[in-house]
């Protein structure tokens, strides 16, 4: 059972998201919050598998709340998916830099919402397809002033192949099918890649792939 915390300052939206998720087999909404500060407090107390945060909330917004729970300084970061009405580059950049594992627009629909929650719970990252390439590439452009970090030891040919598929938005299961390898093998390679790149999550792997021109817009 994937335990989810939902935070949105609009009660109607918060309730609607919770109803959609509660109706899914294997997902349970364990808490709701009306602002970022309440969301952080609930998340620390309940330790949900995934947090679903709106960006624009009073007091503490979703990006700040994400940073509190999943930022670079957090020893045991939570899986967070950010959802918003606004397709604004700065919001996406801020959410990803704060440690979010997913980014969705509220008009994405129930199916993509559920996929994002499941992906985050499984250690994957899902970003709305209509903004993925543009925003990830744009985000990497903001870091062109410094050379990308080099791995402690070179990636193997298979690891390079898996990194490119991750950067193309493929999930672990899809990578396993595409490359004709087992799911456990994919996870083993991903762990190795993250260790070599000192990356915390799949989003950071994608950023590095763009920065090093392994994938292009």
From TrEMBL:
One of its GO terms (molecular function) is DNA binding. One of its GO terms (biological process) is phosphorelay signal transduction system. The modification 4-aspartylphosphate is found at residue 54. It comes from the Bacteria. InterPro entries: CheY-like_superfamily, NreC/VraR/RcsB-like_REC, Sig_transdc_resp-reg_C-effctor, Sig_transdc_resp-reg_receiver, Tscrpt_reg_LuxR_C, WalR-like. The keyword DNA-binding applies. It holds the Pfam family Response_reg. Keywords: DNA-binding, Phosphoprotein, Transcription, Transcription regulation. Residues 148-213 form the HTH luxR-type domain. Residues 3-121 form the Response regulatory domain. PANTHER family: TRANSCRIPTIONAL REGULATORY PROTEIN NARL-RELATED, TWO-COMPONENT RESPONSE REGULATOR. This is Response regulator transcription factor. It comes from Kribbella qitaiheensis. The lineage of its organism: Bacteria, Bacillati, Actinomycetota, Actinomycetes, Propionibacteriales.
């Amino acid at each position: 059972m994937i335990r989810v915390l939902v935070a949105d300052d609009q009660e109607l939206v918060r309730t609607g998201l919770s109803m959609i998720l509660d109706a899914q087999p294997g997902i349970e909404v364990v808490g709701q919050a009306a602002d970022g500060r309440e969301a952080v407090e609930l998340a620390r107390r309940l330790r949900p598998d995934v947090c679903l945060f709106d960006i624009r909330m009073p007091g503490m917004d979703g990006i700040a709340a994400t940073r509190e729970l999943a930022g670079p300084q957090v020893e045991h970061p939570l899986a967070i998916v950010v959802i918003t009405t606004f397709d604004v580059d700065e919001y996406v950049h801020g959410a990803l830099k704060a440690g979010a594992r997913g980014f969705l627009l509220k008009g994405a629909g129930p199916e993509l919402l559920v996929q994002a929650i499941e992906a985050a719970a499984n250690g994957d990252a899902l970003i709305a397809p209509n903004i993925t390439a543009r925003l990830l590439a744009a985000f990497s452009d903001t870091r062109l002033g410094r050379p990308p970090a080099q791995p402690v030891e070179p990636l193997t040919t298979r690891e390079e192949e898996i990194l490119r598929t991750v950067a193309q938005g493929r999930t672990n299961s899809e990578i396993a099918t595409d490359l004709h390898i087992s799911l456990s093998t994919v996870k083993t390679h991903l762990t190795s890649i993250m260790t070599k790149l000192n990356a915390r999550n799949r989003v950071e792997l994608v950023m590095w792939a763009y920065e090093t021109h392994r994938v292009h817009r």
